[in-house]
Amino acid sequence: MPSRYLSFRCSVPWLILLLETLLLIRFVFRFPDVGNTYSPSSLYPEFQDVNHMVIFGFGFFLMVLRRYGFSSTGLNFLLIVLGVQCSLLVEDLLVFLGVQENKGGMRRLAEAVVSMTAVAISTGAVLGKANPVQLIVMSLVELIIFYVSRCINRTFLQVPDNLTLMHVHLFGAYFGLAVTSCFPEPPPGLDKNRSTPKSDLFSMLGTVFVWVFWPSFNSILTDSKREAVLNTYFALAVSAVAAFMLSVLTSKDGKFRMTHIHSAVLAGGVTISYTAHSIQHPWIAMILGLLGSVITILGSHCLQRCFNPAFKLQDTSGVHFTFGLPAVLGAVASVVLCVVEEGISTQWNDLSSLGHLIFVDVGAFCQTISIALITGLITGLILNIKLLKTVHVSKYFDDQFYWEFPHLSVGF
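^ RHL protein, sequence as received from the core. Prediction below:
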């Protein structure tokens, strides 16, 4: 009996096969002078933590919809493992073109996994609305644009390589918001975009995994690993405590709200990502963690009531106030701390140097967010062409459109 749901048999398998063929050719016929894949490295413990965080943590973190659990975890896994291979291909091309230096195999793999965080965040914004073909295309485009943005920051603004990678939260959040603005809004009567206690529990499980492994994420590619780990943990701890406190203070009945805890406990890790390696006083990291939690919870109230309806944004997982706003706060904090540190060291005599630092940091921030918004909008328009089999709004937020449910097949 033919299914009521659209089959992707003629698109998804062949698209994946095409990409895997190109990636296989990449390893068979390598670009010259791109380094040894099996060069020795001590990054494996941190890489393992980040791999758990991106695949398991974000996979369950996105399980916020009551009828979209299979797709949240399954498609996230597909995008990550496919995107990591594509990232290696993009890095090989950049090395071949001479715009990026040669690196060891494990370091390149670690950068690829960290870069996929942008895709996981963007996926949360379009969760339930984009089909697998659209998600794969979005992931490939986003990865390429993110590497281009990093090259601009590194080449023209002289931003250190590890710091260009920490723009991943900012880029992923605003790229995803721009993409989701191009999708039609679901009808008012559609209730599939709600959560249940079970989906909230699984989503909180993913949040806890992301929280636990975040110190490794912020320290994996920096030379000051001890400072990065300690400062990240202090910021995360304070943001988690503040999330429970602010949740009670802002809820009408004075109870904890799972949506607050789900998003605000991670705010400290996002906010501290730019400065975790350079902060020398734990109280600074703790203040940033507190501010990150505050801006997340207060931002969720303002954005959901004012910003999202005005711009017709359907931010399914709340990535704007979970990752976007804390990333903006972290970027501003990095500028302030850098200026204060440089000013104290020069006794505020070298104003030209301070001006240059401000220009570089603000320029990197503006360049990243501008490219994310512009290219995200263009990508969203491309994803809605008929060739990519756009899903009808009545089929949003439903696993049955993509996954087999044998126990429900009798009713079809």
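Confidence is low (pLDDT under 50) at residues 1-5.
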